[in-house]
Amino acid sequence: MMVVREQTPSEALAIVPIQFFVPASQQTTTDADSEPTPMLQIEGARETTPETPKQLQETTPKLPPAPTKIHPDAEDAAALLMMARTATYVPKTDPGMPSFSLGLTDSSQEGASTQETEREKSPETATMLEQLDSLVQKLASSASKGKDESPQIQRETGGESSAKFETPGGINQIPDDMKQKCYIWGTRLKEDAGGNTNEYEEMCTLIGQGEYILIRMHLASLQAKSDIESQIVSAICLILNQKNEKRFQEQIYCLPPDIVSMALSDHPRGEFISPKTNKEFRVEAYPSFIEFIDRKKLSSHPYIFAPVCHSGHWWLWLINTTKRKCQILDPLHKKAPSDERKDINKFTGYVFSRLITYAGGKPLEKGEKEKEIKASYVKISGQKTSYDCAIYVMKWLELIEPENIKKGKYEWDNWTQEEVDHYRVEYASRILFSEMNTQRDRAIRESSAIRLSKPSSVLLSPFCQINSADIETG
Q1: Which of 30, 131, 274, 362 has its CA 20 to 30 A from that of 101?
Q2: Could you tell me where the Polar residues compositional bias lies (predicted)?
Q3: The domain containing residue 334 runs over which residues?
């Protein structure tokens, strides 16, 4: 809005008569308001209305229409009131200033005396201001009646956004595009001009038996064709153990692999005496990871599913604590591939027995036989690549039914490679959107800010599925 003033010898402001009409949509049908709104005229110091200079008419640009508002007429009335109040303003004489105001304030003049910038309001002007005030209030009151028809959109907070995902269906209720955004945000590594990366940025804090923290480097291992970090597998174990399902509350306990991984680091070839510490394995030697073990479930559940990783390869132990029987599901091998692997299996069996005993359960074997625990391999269809073993192990934690192992075989419909790739996208959102994650609201907020490219008609086909290889995270 631009207010045009005409410079007069008396330095007074010439006021142009203004007409204001209430649109029919804002009129009410009550008796008090049924009369037409009178024309409102504001008079200034001069009775004659000066014509707009020809040069100004030619050079003044036409402004585009203002954006549509919910109640534009009420707001226009408020603007009119502001114009009327501006009539009492007398600009300083400055030959270098234009004859119109752009509404900009010079901070150097803020402390100027009011006597230099204002003159006394005439009774007529005061009366007109009162009329305008009354008119604005009437319009605003009339406009408020339509609030139910045109509700304003409220801005969501992080907590309100996260509440959308708190559904009985859990992770399956999260929209696919949101999973893709979460995957991009969680796995993207960035490098600044100085060569520093964000790989050590804290991304997730799972609250279970303790605070389990994941950094971006861990989540980045979910990128296509990458070997998955042990912390991702541990996070999935912690999340599954908290699921309110009979399978995990009464039957199967998923043992996080942290202590086993640390033990294999100290006993790299399955030696019972560590070449690094010259000591035997003791659970107490790894206090940082003890807190993440649920001792009650470890000592009471009939089955323990224990992921193991050595030299970049993952496999899964199935331990029947009732029958003291152990089996191995390896996504790549149908039997121990080497004598070293046999030694590693004996050592890990010993570690599991020690962990169960530490939690208050009975050992898998007694005495020296505890170091001779045997585990048979189950023949099962597995990975098709050299880097998807962790995906299979994590999915088997949820799917494998021990009673369906018949004669050393487990029959099931293996996944296609496209499905395996897609699980990498799924696991990022399962971890970051987990209710156990104290940074969940941030994950949802940051993921929502990611903009995906508009998919083609091919991508919208129900036969097309987005997987980790289709998403650029660089």
Answers
A1: 131
A2: 50-60, 102-115
A3: 203-472
3-state SS assignment for residue 371: helix
Angle ∠(200,229,172) on CA atoms, nearest 5: 100
pTM given for the model: 0.63
143-172 mean pLDDT: 43
Could you tell me if 410 and 377 are in contact, meaning their C-beta atoms sit under 8 angstroms apart? Answer: no
pLDDT value at position 53? 44
In a domain, 179, yes or no: no
Q: What is the overall mean pLDDT for the chain?
A: 76
Pairing type for strands 3-4 and 100-101 reads antiparallel
| Alpha carbon distances (Å) from 295 to 31, 55, 299, 358 | 79, 88, 6, 8
- Residue 403: pLDDT over 50: yes
Res 221: pLDDT = 97
Find residue 273's DSSP bridge partners: 280
- What is the separation of C-alpha 34 from the centre of its chain, rounded to a whole number of angstroms? 53
Residues 414-460: tens digit of each pLDDT: 999 999 999 999 999 999 999 999 999 999 999 999 988 755 444 43
In a domain, 22, yes or no: no
pLDDT tens-place string over residues 305-351? 999 999 999 999 999 999 999 999 999 999 999 999 999 999 999 99
Contact between 93 and 11 (Cβ < 8 Å): yes
Q: Name the residue among 364, 360, 322, 323 with its Cα closest to residue 346.
A: 364
Total domain count, the chain: 1
- Dihedral of CA atoms 192, 196, 198, 201 in degrees, nearest 10, equals -140
Residue 174 belongs to a domain? no
Residue 409: φ, ψ to 5°: -130, 150
Cβ atoms 70, 150 nearer than 8 A: yes
* C-alpha pair distances (Å), 117 with each of 90, 93, 102, 109, 277: 6, 11, 17, 10, 86
Tell me which of 62-71, 250-259, 288-297 is least confident. 62-71
| CATH number for 398 | 3.40.395.10
SS (H, E, C) 280-321: ECCHHHCHHHHCCCCHHHHHHCCEEEEEEEECCEEEEEEEEC
